[in-house]
Amino acid sequence: MRRTGREMGVPELEPEVFDRAIVAVALTSGPEHRMVYYNDAFHDLFGPRPLGVRAAEVFDDPHASPYLDRLDVVYTDKTSHQVTSPRTTEDSTPGGPGRRHFVYSLSPVVSRHGPGVLTVAIDTTAHVEATERAEELSEERHQALQRYEALMSAVSQIVWLMRPDGAITELVGGFEEFTGLPWRSRIDEVWLESVHPHDRAGLLQTFQEAATGPPTMFVCTFRMRTATGAYRRVQSRAVPVVRDGETVEWIGTTSDVEDQWRNRLRERLLARVATVTAAQDVAQAFGATAAAVVPELTDACVVFLLPAVGLPGPGPGGAPTATRIAATARAGLPDLPPLNDQSYQVGPVVQQVIESRRPRLVTFPSGEPPPGIVPDVSTAWLRRVRATSLTIVPIVIDAAVVAFAVAAACSDSPPPGPADLALLGEILHEVRDPLRQALELQRTRHTALTLQRALLTPTPRVPGAELAAHYQPASKTAEIGGDWYDALLLPDGSVALTIGDIAGHDLEAATSMSQLRSMLRVIAYDQVHPGTPADGLARLDRVADGLGIAPLVTAVHAQLTPGPGGGWHAAWSNAGHPPPLLLPVAGAPRFLQGEGPDLPLCVDPALPRATWHHELRIGDTLLLYTDGLIEVPGTDLTEGMAHLAAHAEEAQSDGVTLAALCARLLAAADSRRDDAAVIGFRPIAQGRVWTGMWG
After folding, report:
1. 652 part of a folded domain
2. pTM to 2 decimals?
3. How many domains would you assign to the chain?
4. Greater confidence, 497 or 83?
């Protein structure tokens, strides 16, 4: 039976007497140190803690282990213990006390809960933070002193002293030798004229920020005109001299950092060339090229593409034409004219650059660019931005000039110096490999697209039916070549429709597509050995697999035969392709799924294939399409099919022609990454009724 302190002759502690104490108080009981009490001050310092729980669970922070050890010692030895060096607790829970500092003491007590330990903590947060801030200020002053001593030891630089009123004393000379101007004892407009126009505002703002508020170090890199007239980058560094809390003067140095700055700039610009490597088409590649040199080397850069990559050839008189393909300007300048793919005939200056393969700098009075160098729309923009020079740099790939870049100095900027011109040429030379890759990709894409469009022949005229097909290549960031459609009027008056997609989107896929399309046309047209659409696909599957024409092919092959009353009978077989879409003349659209598609071609030619049937009434529309019309990255194909059905139903309800319906469906998929094709069939009323094999 547990005896209380009163029974043992020891007065019991009533913890409630500490409820309104300004110091934090907590009481634990027993050898497990279960928390049985804490007051409001403890709650404010440490946040809410559960009662009746062991201290090891209440204070589960790793830093609390010394406290738990001391609880054991005080409870066992019945001796008090004090911790006078500040301890820290952090409570990041919403509404918690946050980071707090404290000291504490532990005393053995007996309460109605039995023997225990009384913890008394004092919040020292304000004192500790004040001490830390004082140490930080001391370190800042120490660093300022070190900077001051380092600056004074830099005798190879220009060293100067400036009073708060702006008067300057040159302690270590060199200004006149560097700038070619006499030393001026005060910063004024004449002195600032030697600073590059684009750097003057930044120089003044940086010094004003350093001189406002608590003393801080002034560091600024800017361009100054040298005695030769060229600009070089210099860096000024200064520290304030403070007495009795007031800045009495500034002592600083100015040194030439052009070589170090240019080396770092060269590394940064070459790193930007990696963005050109990641480009997926010619326009994007040249756009990244222009962006790589703006604004560090030029205010604006425009790239013009020459006929070497398939653009129009020489204009009248033999002068080549060029197309503005990319343009970039630094922030603060008006928007550049939009790119419109229009070509212009280059003038003599650009023609000389192309023939010589050497860059050329053209300077002129502010806002008065000579005509003929760039298109008229670009010349008007140069006048608006007060351009002062144009640098024309040929872009040479495999010994041919495929493009040229025009860099402009704007807003009354002085023309670039020899070092800027050399670095600009170097950067544009470094991008030749990724540009070559982009150009080769465009040539391949153009060849594949030409081949594909040559094979996608116009649909035939079919008595008693409306027939239309459309093809849309993928966006410029993707390749081309896998989708095809075909429509063939057969000798018996029926129509063979095919839609297909070959794995791969390149010239090889386009070539495979042409072979498969031709073979299926022969199979469908050969009515000496008539067969169902499934038979046709099975024959094509065996031949394509045996000859190794393609790795994987999906297709829907259909045969439509006129029937009585103007209707048509549709029979089709599906080799792993999205199902045909039926738009009834009355009723909701639906997909003709059958029992699901068969395997794609070139997977297992031995497996049987199925033929499905449906009767089309006058006004019904049957659509065959490729997955580029329904596939959106990040979404399910069923969602794309639902969107297709909705768009098709809306277009059909507007009473548009079949050709217009197909065009609207492709327009809705204009931003898709894959190419897309659609072919549609719609029975129409006519004067006579054709009776054939399904009659």
Report:
1. yes
2. 0.49
3. 4
4. 497
